[in-house]
Design brief:
The chain is α/β, with parallel strands linked by helices. It has one domain. It has a four-stranded mixed β-sheet with strand order 1-2-4-3. β3 and β4 form a beta hairpin. α1 runs parallel beside α2 and α2 crosses α4. The radius of gyration is 14 Å and the shape is globular.
Amino acid sequence: MGLNENRKIQELKDKILPDRSKEIEEICGKAISYEVEWDTFDTFDALNFLDNISCHRLNMALRSICNDEMGKQAVRDGLKLIKLRNSKDNKVELSLSNGVLEMTNDYVQKSYSSDNAICAFLMEKL
C-alpha cells in the first residue's frame, strides 16, 4: 500500500469509523464499534467506498429498525460489534453470530447489500 491508502486508513480509524459508531449510538442508544479486516482492503478504491457501502447503509437500516423502543432494544441487545471485510470476487454476505455482524462486500466492483437488504436481514436475526 502507498501513502494515499495509508492516509485513508488513518482517516477511517481516527475519524470516520468513530463518527459512525457515535451515529449508531444516536440511533439506538448504544455505540457499536467497527472492526475492519484491513489486509483485505488493498486498493484506494476499496478503502474509499468502505464508509458509503457499509457504514452509511448499515446506519440507514438501523434507522428503519430503531423507529420505536422495541427496535432500539433489539439492536442494543443483539449487536455488539460490526466486522467489515472486502471481497475480490463480487461476494456479498451478511452474517450475525453472538452479536457480531459480519459484512462482506466487493468494494471495488461495488457489489454490496442495500440498506433494505441489511434491514430485512437484521429484522429476521435480532
